[in-house]
Amino acid sequence: MDKEEIRKYGLNLGIDAVGFTSIEDYRSEKSPDPHTILPDVKSIIVLGHRMIDGALESKNMRVAMSARMGVMDTSKSHLYLMARFIEDRFKDKAATVLSSYPLDMEAPALGLRGDVSLRHAAVSAGLGRFGRHNLVIHPRFGSRLSFMGILTTLPLASDMPVTEGLCDDCNLCVEACPGKALDIEGKTEDLKCLRASQPYGIGAAIDYIRRFLGKSPEEQQTILKDPRFMSLYQASFIGFHYHCFNCIAVCPIDGR
Ligand code: B12
Ligand code: SF4
Ligand code: SF4
């Protein structure tokens, strides 16, 4: 059976979880129609890579970020290999969706909407359920799974959805959020999360440029020596540089 052959290939590569959803079962109101990405799309394959516990739980945010970078690099290679396998083996098309950027920065998306909502795809692919933190909790890996996706013209039936309740409503994620971004149930206040978790993100870059413009050359020299400039510079080549993983790290659900 196609699904089991693909799943086996993925698990042998080192992917931690592989799930399938037919395109009819994928529903994400705010996301673009997947047919605009791959016109004859029939299914989505969702890949899950687990995060590294020690790094994730570290108070050192550079170390926590290094694990996220490892997940992103490794899963990016796996995504490519899986897509190539599908095209070679089944002669069907595959279109790859990364876990984060590049994102559509134009309105109305403004960098806050992916081309595919990987959480909604993961839920319909039987990889878990939404928790109070609005992340997907997997029965085995809890909140610590990062997702990528492959749209394909290969028809594949959806995996069985997870029916058991996985979030135990302990509220630890809400209490641990430094940005108070999870106070409203069922919604992440994205700007609050961004301000707290990406102190060297776009908002900080705009503030810095504003501070710089119109100043005398001497004042500009001083502003350039501000260590914040070095952090902005570093973030500009790291990509989105997170300084908070609390909602994942405090969630006690772990089926391992
Ligand atoms: C843009 C984005 C963000 C933005 C905006 C988030 C948002 N409002 O969706 C910001 C920067 C704030 C963000 C933050 C984080 N993100 Co983010 N993000 C994305 C991205 C690229 C797109 C999401 C998107 O399209 N959202 C728009 C639409 C689809 O969302 P929505 O329909 O409005 O759904 C929202 C609510 O309605 C609610 N919701 C929807 N349906 C349901 C159903 C139920 C039952 C419930 C309870 C809630 C609920 O959940 C959503 C959150 O607001 C995805 C990757 C991807 N391509 O999917 C990663 C992704 C969702 N992020 C992820 C992670 C890990 C994070 C962070 C922990 C960052 C970090 N430090 O690593 C935080 C956590 C924030 C949180 N607790 O919600 C993971 C989640 C993995 C998982 N196991 O669920 C993803 C899938 C990327 C990945 N690496 O796999 N993210
Ligand atoms: S990543 Fe941090 S700031 Fe963002 S929702 Fe999670 S705990 Fe809150
Ligand atoms: S920390 Fe508690 S309330 Fe939050 S998602 Fe995990 S189990 Fe649910």
Helix content: 25-40%
Which small molecules are bound? cobalamin, iron/sulfur cluster
Strand arrangement within the widest β-sheet reads 1-2-6-3
Instruction: Please give the largest β-sheet.
Output: 4 strands, antiparallel
- Counting structural domains, the number is 2
Q: Report low-confidence residues grouped into runs of 5 or more.
A: none
Continuous helix count: 10
- DSSP strand count: 6
Helix and strand run:
HEEHHEHEEEHHHHHH
What's the overall geometry? globular
Amino- and carboxy-terminal Cα gap: 28 Å
Strand content: 5-15%
Mean pLDDT over the residues: 96
Structural class of the secondary structure composition? alpha+beta
Radius of gyration: 20 Å
